[in-house]
Design brief:
heterotrimer; A alpha+beta (770); B alpha+beta (281); C alpha+beta (165); A: 770 residues; alpha+beta; Aldehyde Oxidoreductase, domain 3; Aldehyde Oxidoreductase, domain 4; 3 domains; C: 165 residues; Ubiquitin-like (UB roll); DNA polymerase, domain 1; 5-stranded mixed β-sheet; binds flavin-adenine dinucleotide; binds FE2/S2 (inorganic) cluster
Chain lengths: 770, 281, 165
């Protein structure tokens, strides 16, 4: 096993889902159809904030074809009809109040969607409108309306060294996360202290497969649920809690997921579909429209105030930050995002002092939650913009400023943390080379069109916090391999990568491995497919499970062949011993009988808990996205054209190179569109572009003329074969690299996204006025 | 997106639509008759916009399916006028030889939407969708064109602006778009700032041999606004600045403010004038 | 085609070469009609607004968003869907190029992208990069960043030309 050349790892062959996906055979939750299935639709609030005076659904209940109606009257009998991550504040349907335009007031299950919608139109609701809260900075003012007058149930998890959390620290703030290390007076010794404020825009995930589930609770003691969801086990737990049901009565199944980018964590469509199914006694499909997706989960808009102390030579000393995250009307994943934003704001640099307060501010807009980058996009935008600003103020090249302060390979990010597992300078130099950054003085302007280049290093901790993973590998008599684990295939290629690890370790082709359907009844427990954790965390469990089963097979063969196991190799389901080859199937049937046998190996992985680590367990791996951009700024119109965009991540070891490339480029394009144009536009509490036609996502003709990525394989990752996670890093550096390039080109600094022509022109005008 | 019912927002779906009768006329006369007689008729050209609108709650009593009206397809010269059949798809129109009678028009037309849309979407449907995001109205306004309608009451010619105001006769069918070919008429269409704004510049020579021009600015959310140009003086920036003095102060939308639209629009116009040789940089 | 259709009517067309005769309604979209058939779920629905192209099928070789085409419109037409591209288990050149170039991630846009590519290559067997970009811009892929898709289209064109298709 040791000296054999790798046969699967690192090969850009067809992914295991390729055949099904290109031929239309892949099944998604949206494709599931059960006999007798009903269709659910919901009635949503037209008000941003209102008290519900009355709901009259009698006419809807009486309509032919309607099998279940759900309002606060029905949810009153559900044991705990609210959900959320740390804070259980989101009702299945509104009870006393509605808190955003689109908040769900009632639901209907009927024979078809049309009948359901007609029934909804017959429901009468009386609202008493209340003032809305939409502004992050004034939400905590004493006169501001309050979204929650009473405290919802919530928890603050255990934190380690320097970190703390608090529920409802002030009006309309559901959570605060703080982190502190080093002396607060460190600023006093600095040559300069710079304070800057950055604004971050808000996007919708725009996954193509809508939020959808099919729920069957037609038998009282059994729930079956198919859902387009990234974390089936936590959803199972949440459903058990809401409905007071035993977890072993609930099966959550996750077919292929048509994209999520963070949005498909935790309960979305499931509680409503289940409640309706229970009332109707029939399976219920609840599929949101894409427009409703905008009202279900979004990224966090943010205001980031960053104060950084430096020495004249560019050495960073201290950084204190205050971050306001626009959490929308319900807490959803906001407290977790706050942890990460609060933790990641220093960026990959060395300081003597770090202090952060991050607040989840509730507003009367759609709930915000996990989004690719998970707070890291917000903080990389602020951090990497400010590093550039400081470098220019000190007259230092931004590249040199970064190099000087970057954490070294192996150096802990902060006290108690794991060491940096990428050579940050190596990645930065790669960008500089690929972009031609050192020759940027030779870039030619074109009359009013000015050119420039910018760099950035996006940074986040990866692999989730304190995440356990369990995997099972079974091998049948004939050498057919079953891989069971809870990682969902959401497009990232996890099923391919994990199967590759198994095939490689068992000396066989990946075609012999079947990734078994994700089903909480059969798959081993998993916390969720998120945080770029598939290969770095689950990968370790899969690797251990495979090595465990391999050991059993070799021990068995050693006994049969009466020799030490370390003389044996497993190749193509034969035992090799020197020049001899012993097929395994006859050996197995000879011992276990003609019906054969299955070898089963399990593997577990979890980062060790450690109170020294601020988040209670050291980070699994560091996800770095290095990026560089060349822009052309039209100083007469303000238009920014990104002529070159280069991003690079460190996969540690690229298990499937094309999947890695696709992740980096897909992420980078999301970063590009956020930088230039993509955003949810709110007018007060009303979303004005919440539909596919007017919400602009990038198309192929939005790609920069030169748009490339390179996957580095530095080999320091914790995953199998040295792999690290991928998938978010490519997005992180893009917006700040472009803003930095705009400064390089035109001498104006934009601190608010998107970097629209209007803002560029206004900044140029302000500069001219000086 | 939503039909705002009394009690709130409902995400409309295709499955909400009740089936309707469909009439499939073969001639314009049959189509006009169908429009006149059918219950709540809705014409259907390429369907790229209508289907979405119906999903979002546009009521359909009777669908009048226009695709068999071959006489309304294609672009041709009629005397001194370029005549565009309402059912001409963007792909057909942009590729037609006749459209080349207005230099710049085929190129501009080829930019409307992406190919999947261009192969089905029609010139007439684009205008009649009355969606500020759609661009045929901008081009037609710049070129001084008109839209011809047929109805049981007879024919009517409307300016693009009147279409926005829904001034066409009831139950009328848009049949053709016509562009009078002034001497040396040409078009420059700038989409570089789309979707925030686009600008069409039409230039021609009047009877007295004088150079004339008109610029039309539009955004994704605002109806096109025409600015008449005074091309004497030959200084592109001065001409465009003078024209932009007429831009209404309330020309602004949720994506862009008036000041930027004014400045960027004027800058683009000056470039267009130079590009077309109508003025000096 | 008749001059008039009642709300409920009988529809005939060919689907992937095989005749289909079915009773349907005028308000039924082509996508729903296809998806309600056995083995018809390869056509995906996302925006249902003609924007994203996930539901793209070929109607008489023209790529159309089947969510925004009424079923009655395909009377007498030849409709091709992703299910019709594979013959005897063998992928078409375009499908194979998408598979080999990993020109997909979640796969929800893939059927539409593949059919768009089939339509492009039927019109222009050797499209230049600008044409490929222009065509692929018709549909949305949220996952890949498009580069791998553009490469797959180039590769598919090469394969088709080499196979003399
Ligand atoms: C994703 C997408 C992108 C697009 N991008 C662009 C773009 O970049 N630029 C652009 O300009 N456009 C764009 N469009 C719009 C597209 O060009 C129009 O949808 C198209 O031109 C409408 O034409 P149609 O034939 O499909 O109209 P239909 O959808 O058939 O009809 C539209 C409306 O016009 C009415 N109508 C149609 N024909 C007639 C007639 N002859 N007489 C009276 N009423 C009539 C219909 O009743 C309906 O109300 C886009 C559309 C989509 C879906
Ligand atoms: S689902 Fe038909 S175009 Fe998006
Ligand atoms: S692969 Fe997911 S949308 Fe294209």
């Amino acid at each position: 096993m040791t000296d054999m050349p790798l046969r699967t790892i690192g090969r850009p062959d067809r992914r295991i889902d390729a055949g099904e996906k290109v031929s239309g055979q892949a099944t998604y939750t949206a494709d599931i159809d059960l006999p007798g299935m009903l269709h659910a639709k919901v009635l949503r609030s037209p008000h941003g904030h209102a008290r519900i005076r009355s709901i009259d659904a009698a006419a809807a209940r009486a309509m032919p074809g309607v099998h279940a109606v759900l309002t606060r009257d029905e949810t009153a009998v559900i044991p705990m009809p609210v959900y959320g991550y740390f804070i259980k504040d989101q009702p299945i349907v509104a009870t006393d109040k509605v808190r955003y335009e689109g908040d769900i007031v009632a639901a209907v299950a009927a024979v078809d969607e049309g009948t359901a919608n007609r029934a909804l139109a017959a429901i009468r609701v009386e609202y008493e409108p209340l003032p809305v809260v939409t502004d992050l900075e004034s939400a905590s003012d004493p006169h501001a309306a309050e979204l929650f007058e009473d405290a919802p149930v919530g928890i603050v998890p255990k934190y380690g060294q320097g970190a703390s959390g608090e529920l409802r620290p002030r009006r309309n703030v559901c959570y605060r996360f703080s982190y502190e290390t080093g002396p607060a007076d460190a600023f006093a010794d600095c040559d300069h202290v710079f304070e800057d404020v950055f604004h971050f825009s808000r996007m919708h995930h725009f996954h193509l497969e809508p939020f959808v589930c099919v729920a069957d609770w037609s038998r009282e003691d059994r729930i079956e649920l198919w859902t387009s969801c990234q974390n089936p086990f936590p959803v199972r737990k949440e459903i058990a809690r809401i409905f007071g049901m035993a977890e072993n009565r609930i099966a959550v199944r996750v077919p292929y997921i048509g994209g999520g980018f963070g949005s498909k964590n935790n309960c979305k469509t499931e509680p409503i579909a289940l409640a309706l199914s229970r009332i109707a006694g029939r399976p219920v499909r609840f599929c949101l429209t894409l427009e409703e997706g905008f009202l279900t989960n979004t990224q966090h808009a943010a205001i980031l105030k960053v104060k950084t102390g430096v020495m004249q030579d560019g050495t960073l000393i201290a950084r204190d930050s205050e971050i306001l995250l626009d959490s929308g009307a319900y807490s959803d994943g906001s407290p977790l995002v706050a942890e990460k934003a609060g933790y990641r704001i220093p960026g990959p640099y060395r300081y003597k002092r770090i202090g952060t307060d991050c607040y989840c501010v509730m507003t009367n807009t759609a709930p915000a939650g996990p989004f690719r980058g998970f707070g890291g996009t917000q903080t990389s935008w602020a951090c990497e913009s400010q590093i550039d600003m400081i470098a220019h103020r000190l007259g230092i090249d931004p590249y040199e400023m970064r190099r000087k302060n970057l954490i070294d390979l192996g150096e802990p990010f902060v006290p108690g943390e794991s060491g940096m597992d990428s050579d940050l300078r190596e990645g930065l130099d790669l960008v500089v080379r690929e972009l031609g950054y050192r020759r940027r003085d030779e870039l030619k302007d074109d009359g009013p069109v000015k050119r420039g280049m910018g760099l950035a290093i996006g940074f986040k901790d990866g692999g989730g916090v304190n995440k356990p993973a369990l995997a099972r590998v079974k091998v049948s008599t004939n050498g057919d391999i079953f891989l069971q684990c809870g990682t969902a295939e959401i497009g990232q290629g996890a099923h391919t990568a994990l199967s590759s690890v198994v095939a490689e370790r068992l000396g066989t082709d990946r075609a012999r491995v079947r990734y078994m359907p994700v089903d909480t009844d059969h798959s081993p427990f998993d916390q969720g497919t998120n945080a770029s954790s598939a290969i770095s965390v689950m990968g370790q469990a899969v690797d251990r499970a495979t090595l465990a089963v391999r050991r059993q097979i070799l021990d068995f063969a050693a006994e049969m062949l009466d020799c030490p196991a370390d003389e044996l190799e497993l190749v193509d389901w034969e035992i090799r011993r020197g020049n001899e080859a012993h097929p395994l199937a006859p050996m197995i049937m000879g011992y276990y009988g003609g019906t054969g046998w299955e070898f089963v190996g399990e593997g577990f992985h979890k980062a060790e808990n450690s109170h020294a680590a601020p988040l209670e367990a050291p980070c699994v791996f560091w996800e770095i996205g290095w990026g560089g951009a060349q822009v052309a700024v039209d100083t007469e119109t303000g238009k920014v054209t990104v002529e070159k965009l280069f991003v690079t991540g460190d996969a540690g070891r690229a298990i499937h190179p094309l999947a890695c490339r696709g992740q980096d480029e897909g992420a980078a394009l999301m970063g590009l569109s956020q930088a230039l144009f993509e955003r949810m536009i709110y007018d007060g509490s009303r979303l004005v572009n919440g539909d596919a036609l007017t919400y602009r996502v990038p198309l192929a003709d939005d790609l920069p003329e030169d748009f490339r990525s390179i996957t580095q394989e530095q080999g320091h990752g914790p995953g199998p074969f040295g792999a690290k996670g991928m998938g978010e890093g490519g997005m992180l550096p893009v917006a700040s690299a472009i803003a930095n390039a705009i400064y390089d080109a035109a001498g104006v600094r934009l601190t608010e996204l998107p970097l629209s022509p209007e803002r560029v022109l206004a900044a140029l005008a302000a500069k001219d006025a000086e | 997106m939503y039909e705002v019912a009394q009690a709130g927002l409902i995400a409309a779906s295709y499955r909400d639509i009740l089936p309707f009768p469909v009439i499939l006329p073969e001639t314009v006369n049959e189509a006009v008759a169908a429009m006149a007689d059918a219950e709540a008729p809705v014409p259907y050209a390429g369907g790229t916009d209508l289907c979405g609108a119906v999903r979002e709650g546009k009521p359909v009593g009777t669908l009048v399916w226009l695709k068999r009206l071959d006489e309304l397809r294609g672009v041709r010269m009629e005397g001194g006028t370029l005549s565009i059949g309402a059912l001409t798809t963007h792909a057909e129109g942009a590729a037609s030889d006749a459209a080349g009678a207005v230099p710049g028009l085929p190129d501009a037309w080829s930019k409307l939407g992406k190919i999947r849309i261009r192969l089905s979407g029609t010139a007439g449907g684009n205008l009649m969708a009355r969606h500020t995001r759609y661009e045929m109205s901008i081009l037609l306004t710049a070129l001084g064109g008109a839209a011809q309608f047929a109805s049981a009451e007879g024919e009517a010619d409307l300016s693009p602006g009147e279409i926005w105001d829904r001034a066409e006769p009831a139950r009328a069918l848009l049949t053709r778009l016509s562009i009078p070919l002034a001497a040396d008429l040409r078009l420059d269409y700038d989409r570089t700032l789309r979707p925030l704004m686009t600008q069409a510049l039409a230039l021609w020579t009047d009877g007295a041999g004088g150079a004339q021009g008109r610029a039309v600015i539009a955004t994704e959310n605002l109806r096109p606004v025409a600015l008449d140009l005074d091309l004497t003086g030959n200084d592109a920036k001065a001409i465009s600045a003078a024209a932009y003095d007429a831009l209404p102060d309330d020309f602004a939308d949720p994506a862009s403010g008036n000041e930027w639209l004014h400045r960027a629009g004027a800058a683009v116009l000056a470039r267009q004038l130079v590009r077309q040789g109508a003025a000096r940089a | 085609m008749p001059d008039r259709l009642d709300p409920r009517f009988d529809l005939s067309f060919t689907l992937n070469g095989a005749p289909v005769d079915t009773a349907t309604t005028t308000a039924t979209t082509l996508a729903d009609l296809l998806r309600d058939r056995r083995d018809g779920r390869g056509t995906k629905l996302a925006c249902e607004r003609a924007v994203c192209g996930a539901c793209t099928v070929l109607v008489d070789d023209v790529p159309r968003a089947s969510c925004s085409v009424f079923a009655f419109e395909v009377e007498g037409s030849a409709v091709r869907t992703v299910e019709g591209l594979t013959h005897d288990g063998e992928l078409s050149s375009v499908q194979a190029a998408f598979a080999d170039n990993s020109a997909f991630q979640c796969g929800f846009c893939t059927a539409g992208m593949i059919l768009l590519t089939e339509a492009l290559l039927a019109r222009d067997p050797d499209p230049d990069d600008a044409t490929i970009r222009d065509w692929i811009s018709s549909n949305i892929c949220r996952c890949t960043g498009y580069n791998l898709i553009l490469e797959a289209v180039r590769d598919a064109a090469r394969r088709k030309r080499e196979a003399g298709q």
